[in-house]
Amino acid sequence: MSDIALSIPQARTARPRSAVKVLRIIQTTCIFIIALVIVSPLLLLVVASLKDDRFQILADMGSFRAFWVSNPTLNNYAEVGHLSGELAFGRYLINSLIILVTTVCSGLIVNSMAAFVLAWGSLRGRAVILSIVIALYVIPQESIIMPLVIMVSRAGMSDTFAVQIVPWIASPLYIFLLYQFFAQLPKELLEAAEMDGASFFRAYRSIFLPLSLPALATVSILMGIETWNQYLWPILVTQTDYARPIAVAIATFFGQDSIYWDRAMAASVLMMIPILGLYLAFQRWFVSSFIGSAVKG
C-alpha cells in the first residue's frame, strides 16, 4: 500500500519534468534558429570576402555553398587595402577612423559639459533651454540638411574633415541622455566639492565625470555608430577622395558596369571591424548602463 502511495507522486512529478525538458529544447531550438538568421548575413559576408572569384560568389548565392569557401584567400583585402589609386580603401578607412575618433571624443566633452550645466549649473532659464534641446531632437535631420550644406559651403568647409565632424559634435539626444544621468546623482556630491574649495568645472571633471562612465560608454557607442554609418551627409559635402569616408567609397562599387562583389565584400568587412572594436571596448559599461536604465524605468 505504501509502495503504491509513493509511486503516484513520482509519476506526477515525472510529467512536469519531461514537459519542462521538452519546452527547453523547443526554446533552445528557436533561439538557435533566430541567432542563425541574424548571424547568417555576417557569415556570408566574411565567407564571400575570402573568395577570389566574383562570378563564383554570384553562382553560390541562394545555396548553402554561399556559406563555405574551399580555397580561402586574402587577395581581396590586399587589393582594396591601398592608400592611393583606384581602390584606395585603406585611405577611406583611415578617413573614417579620423572622423569617428574626433567626433566621438569632441562630442563626449561638449555634450557632457552642456548636460552638466543644465543639470547642476546656475544658468537662468535652464528648464526652457532643456525644453528647446528636447524639441530639437524631434526635428528630422534630413529636413535641415540642405540649409546646412549651403552654410558649410559658404564657410569654405566643403570637402574637408571639419565639415564631417563639426556639425555633429553637439547633439540634443546625447545632451538629454547625459543630463538624465547627471540629474540622478546626489546633489550632496556637488555641495561637498564646493565646501572643499573645488570649482564648478573641477567638480564636473573630478567627481561627476568618473561616475558617468556607463552613460559615457553608451553615448560613445551610439555616437560612433551614427558617425560611422553616415552616408547622405558625406556624399553631399565631399567631391574628392581627400576626406571621403569608406561608407561612400563602398557605394561606388555598385555604380559601375561590372560589380566586383569580391572586393565589395572585403571592403564591407573592413568597414565593420572598427565599430565592432568600439562596441567590444565599451561593452561592459554599455550593458550595465542599459540594465540600469531598464531597472530605473
Summed up:
This protein is an all-alpha fold and 297 residues long. It has 15 helices and no strands. The longest helix has 48 residues, at 2-49.
Overview of the molecule:
This protein is mostly helical and 297 residues long. It is 73% helix and 0% strand. It contains 15 helices and no strands. Helix 5 (126-137) crosses helix 8 (172-184). It is globular. The model is unreliable at 1-6 (pLDDT under 50).
Topology diagram in text:
Layout: H1 2-49, H2 54-60, H3 75-80, H4 89-120, H5 126-137, H6 145-154, H7 162-165, H8 172-184, H9 187-195, H10 200-211, H11 213-228, H12 232-237, H13 246-251, H14 261-281, H15 283-296
Helix pairs in contact: 1-14, 4-8, 4-11, 5-8, 8-11, 9-10, 11-15
Overall geometry: globular
Q: Would you tell me the structural class of the helices and strands? A: mainly alpha
List low-pLDDT spans.
1-6
- Number of helices, counting only DSSP H or I runs of 4 residues or more: 15
- Cα-based radius of gyration, to the nearest Å: 26 Å
Quaternary structure annotation: single chain
Elements, N to C (H/E):
HHHHHHHHHHHHHHH
- What percentage of the residues does DSSP assign to strands (E)? under 5%
Task: Give the strand tally.
Answer: 0
CA(first)-CA(last) distance: 56 Å
Helix content: over 70%
Averaged pLDDT: 84
Largest sheet: none
Jot down its keywords.
297 residues, 15 helices, mainly alpha
